[in-house]
Design a protein that fits this description.
Layout lengths: L2 H12 L5 E5 L7 E4 L3 H9 L2 H4 L1 H8 L4 E2 H7 L4 H8 L5 E6 L2 E6 L6 H19 L7 H12 L3 H8 L3 H15 L4 H9 L2
Antiparallel strand pairs: 1-2, 1-5, 3-4, 4-5
Helix pairs in contact: 1-7
């Protein structure tokens, strides 16, 4: 499993979707995926070659917005995958794609369109970050990050590094842009996870 799949799965779990499948390679036949769906459903899915019949990956890849399983089922009432999923109790969920990854997640209850948009933007951020090759920190950047991690005030960090407060703000702004974050805490979390 690629690290991007793991990151996407971790994010889904964090925002409350604990049963999901995420994959890539549907067009090439070199499927790479992870799933937290019930083992019985996964076995049934692959024994019946549903990966070749499942409309969700192709509908998700063809669309620009998340789609609900119920909408696919309405259009394809006789699709064996959608019907079998319902028989397994997988009635409510959604699918979406971003960066070639297809996400299918089960949920209890209703999920609003704005919730789906939030999930899609969260997934897109992760895919975007995973595709960016980031140069290692310079010694001065590492010093700044180390001092941020200690929690020193900005004035003290500037004094220790021998830079002006404005120079320090500029250095932080560059790091925030480089790592696509908005706060010291986010920067430290991203760097810890590298």
């Amino acid at each position: 499993m690629t690290s991007t799949l793991q990151l996407l799965g971790d994010e889904l779990t964090k925002i409350g979707f604990e049963r999901y499948a995420i994959g890539t390679g549907f067009h090439t036949g070199e499927l790479d995926f992870t799933s937290t769906f019930d083992d019985q459903w996964q076995k049934f899915y692959f024994v019946n070659n549903f990966q070749k019949l499942d409309p969700l990956p192709y509908c998700a890849l063809a669309g620009e917005t998340p789609l609900r399983w119920s909408d696919i089922h309405k259009r394809m009432k006789k699709n064996p995958v959608m019907n079998a999923a319902r028989d397994f109790g997988l009635k409510q969920g959604f699918g979406l794609s971003c960066g070639g990854y297809v996400v299918s997640a089960y949920h209890d209850g209703e999920v609003s369109d704005s919730d789906l948009s939030f999930v899609q933007s969260s997934m897109a951020r992760i895919v975007q970050r995973s595709e960016v090759v980031i140069e290692p920190l310079t010694k001065s950047q590492q010093g700044l990050v180390d001092l941020l991690g200690v929690g020193l005030p900005m004035a003290q960090i500037a004094e220790i590094l021998g830079v002006t407060p404005d120079g320090l703000k500029t250095a932080k702004r560059r790091l925030f842009k480089k790592y696509q974050v908005n706060s010291d805490a986010q920067l430290l979390r991203v760097l810890r996870n590298q």
